[in-house]
Amino acid sequence: MNYALSRHLDCNFDEAVLRITDSLKNEGFGILTEIDLDKVFAEKLGKEFKRYKIIGACNPKFAWEAVSKEMDLGLIIPCKLAVQYVSENETRVIAIESKYLFDIINNPALNCIRDDIRSKINLALQYA
């Protein structure tokens, strides 16, 4: 099973970050975390890496519903996305495939939430 949804954007890295974060907000997600993985590698390991930002996004309504049905679900929230530098005018945005994560948990009570999250993340990627 493919565990990621992705889209290439014809824009620079910084523009892609703005576009996906705005698009997520339009779908009801707040940005909880941003990790510049390339900077972490440089600071902690002295290694260079292409620009790569991990974004933790959370829709409070979905999170509340999910954790109310499965207390340990906090291990997989917030939803993870990443923005990857490809070239000066091309950036790849990826998001975790919620079906993959939720199917590991195997709780049918979460299926509607899983599908709603997937739909909203797909829309955020589509309109970024």
Commentary on this structure:
The protein is of the alpha+beta class. The protein has one domain: TATA-Binding Protein, CATH 3.30.310.70. Helices cover 45% and strands 28% of the residues. The chain is built from five helices and five strands. It has helices at residues 13-26, 37-45, 60-69, 98-105, 111-127; strands at residues 4-9, 30-36, 52-58, 79-87, 90-96. It has a five-stranded antiparallel β-sheet with strand order 1-5-4-3-2. Helix 1 (13-26) crosses helix 5 (111-127). It is globular. The model has no long low-confidence stretch (mean pLDDT 95).
Please count the beta strands (DSSP E, at least 2 residues each). 5
Radius of gyration: 15 Å
CATH architecture: 2-Layer Sandwich
CATH superfamily: TT1751-like domain
Provide a count of the helices: 5
**End-to-end gap:** 25 Å
Note the main sheet: 5 strands, antiparallel
| Overall helicity | 40-55%
Strand order of the largest sheet: 1-5-4-3-2
Report the structural category.
alpha+beta
Assess the beta-strand content as a share of residues: 25-35%
Any idea what the shape is?
Answer: globular
Specify the oligomeric state: single chain
How many domains is the backbone divided into?
1
Mean pLDDT: 95
Poorly predicted sequence stretches spanning 5 or more consecutive residues: none
Summarize the structure.
The chain contains 5 helices and 5 strands, in the order E-H-E-H-E-H-E-E-H-H. It has helices at residues 13-26, 37-45, 60-69, 98-105, 111-127, and strands at 4-9, 30-36, 52-58, 79-87, 90-96. The protein has a 5-stranded antiparallel sheet with strand order 1-5-4-3-2.
